[in-house]
Design brief:
By secondary structure, the chain is mainly α. It has one domain (12-80). The chain contains three helices and no strands.
Length: 82
């Protein structure tokens, strides 16, 4: 686990409201960060999906699919030292 010591400068009203709402506890800050990271991942995934929908990849032939599978299996064998 990583320990961070942060110095935040917030407007007094925001800091007080966040404190009263229990948002400044380590557990709540962790939850908020996880939620923000998840939202960013969803945004990136949505952008990629939109790009792929606008510019679809050409379909692969069965031979191309088999070549990809063979390539992957060869990489796994090399990585495992077989």
């Amino acid at each position: 686990m990583t320990t961070l010591e942060l110095k935040l400068n917030l407007p007094d009203s925001l800091a007080n409201e966040a404190r009263q709402a229990g948002l400044l506890t380590p557990e709540e800050l962790e939850r908020l960060l996880r939620e923000a990271l998840r939202a960013r991942r969803v945004e990136r995934l949505t952008a990629v999906r939109e790009t792929l929908a606008a510019n679809p990849l050409p379909p692969m032939t069965p031979e191309e699919i088999q070549a990809e599978i063979d390539d992957y299996r060869a990489q796994v064998r090399r990585a495992s030292g077989s």
